[in-house]
Amino acid sequence: SPMPTSQPYLAQLETEEQSNTLSINSRFTNNSGTDVNFSYRVKSERSGVAGKSVNSQSGSMSAAAGQTITLSKTSFTFSPQDSYTIVLEIFDQNKVVAKDQIVFQGN
């Protein structure tokens, strides 16, 4: 669901399923009037028959005022029995300024 435009920063996770592969695009939109230099972290947690796996990607980024950028693209194989939690967090120093989360419940 779109966040109100009063939010200066927007974090978005986009997922795409193809056969047994789940692709995740992490995006950041700077709705503020100033250029920013932030860092981000994408954490995906999978639990299923094979146990639990956690994957974390992080980095730094800069976005001009009004710009939307793609932070990371990741994909992994999934089975319908597995459950996933994917969290995207945007940090200004140590403060979270934007966040998005997707949860897939397995069968």
Strand content: over 45%
Q: Given the helix and strand composition, which structural class is it?
A: mainly beta
Shape: elongated
Main beta-sheet strand count, sense and barrel state? 4 strands, antiparallel
Indicate the mean pLDDT: 91
Order of helices and strands: EEEEEEE
Query: What is the helix content?
Result: under 10%
Structure description:
The mean pLDDT is 91. The protein is built from no helices and 7 strands. The chain is mostly beta strands and 107 residues long. Strand 3 (36-48) and strand 4 form a beta hairpin. It has strands spanning 9-18, 21-30, 36-48, 51-63, 68-77, 83-92, 95-104. The strands form 2 sheets. Strands 4-3-6-7 form a 4-stranded antiparallel sheet, with no helix packed on it. Strands 1-2-5 form a 3-stranded antiparallel sheet, with no helix packed on it.
What is the compact description of this entry?
This protein has about 110 residues and is mainly beta. It contains no helices and 7 strands.
Which key features would you list for this structure?
single chain, 107 residues, mainly beta, four-stranded antiparallel β-sheet, three-stranded antiparallel β-sheet, elongated
Q: What is the element layout, followed by pairings?
A:
Blueprint: E1 9-18, E2 21-30, E3 36-48, E4 51-63, E5 68-77, E6 83-92, E7 95-104
Antiparallel strand pairs: 1-2, 2-5, 3-4, 3-6, 6-7
